[in-house]
Amino acid sequence: MNAPDLVLTVEGLDALISALAGTGFRVIGPTPGEGAIVHDDVSSTDDLPRGWGDEQAPGRYRLRPRDDGALFGYALAPQSWKRFLHPPRERLWSARREGGEVDLRPAPLPEERFAFIGVRACELKAIAVQDRVLLGGAHVDARYAARRSSLFVVAVNCADPAATCFCSSMQTGPEVGEGHDVVLTELVSAEGSRFLARAGSEAGAAMLAGLPSRPATPREVAAGAEVIAGAEARMGRAMPPGDPRALLADLEHPRWDDVAARCLTCGACTQVCPTCFCTTVEDTSDLSGRETARDQRWDSCFATEFSFIHGGAVRASGRSRYRQWLTHKLATWIEQFGTSGCVGCGRCIAWCPVGIDITEEMAAFAAGPEDER
């Protein structure tokens, strides 16, 4: 959608949040809390992480104060937006037995409408990946579809990537391209923040039309472009060039043993990853045996029982489980879904307890087995 840039003040952003809430959306955005930036309910810009940034490195995440009062001056929250569209746990059905009859009650489809504030380019790409997995093909996840169909996205162009970010080398950022209703670029000055705003959909254009705004000047448009260019120049990491399917073809590469000696197989990387989608189901019943229910919950390919069949687990070793994760994420995912399973957000690097770095691992595979030895 070719829409002109408008300028919103902080008060204009407040009006946007109020307008979304007033039209029935549950507005979710970044908030400072629990020692991190977390996604939670927001009712005004007072809830946003004004003056807070973050420091991320392998196995490390810390909030840091900023001196410029930026509202979106952080790189990425630990949580991805996946937890709202594809929740960690949800009820699928319940049943009750009365005498010889069983009353099976499917859980109703979700009706809550979400509006996300502050979605970054890499996270939009991650949502698109989940769309491909959960909405594509013959077997659509109806619960995900219900949440996704009513989603309103206010994206924000990244201004300050973390040392763990590598979206530029994955062609997923830092500039927002598509999949949003409104995109903002924060311009910070001594007078405070103002936002370049551009509609990305008809719904976004209609929402902006009702807000206090003015046309952006050429200087402001140029300043917005400089914000994005600066973010790209400061990208903390890069994925090595080359086809990852070819780089990972050697399943006996000595690097697999090296990473297996460090990996705890805790599954933290799959929990924070915005594209991982694997689930399992759990059945529970009450003590009387009359009430039972089935819940769906996130699962991880790092769990031994993930590949369990009669006779034991197919991937019993940590080496085989890490190899499964990396080769699927970067190689066979392309063959399965037509896209990479990695968007370069770097969460798996920051939240790995031992600091395993996916870009470092791929660089080792690119170097070849002789160099590795």
From TrEMBL:
Keyword terms of this UniProt record: Iron, Iron-sulfur, Metal-binding
SUPFAM superfamilies cross-referenced by the UniProt entry: alpha-helical ferredoxin
GO MF annotations in UniProt: iron-sulfur cluster binding; metal ion binding
InterPro entries, per database record: 4Fe4S_Fe-S-bd, 4Fe4S_Fe_S_CS, Helical_ferredxn
Keyword Signal appears in the UniProt entry: no
Superkingdom of this protein's organism: Bacteria
Coiled-coil parts of chain: none
Location of the 4Fe-4S ferredoxin-type domain: 252-284, 333-361
The protein, known as: 4Fe-4S dicluster containing protein
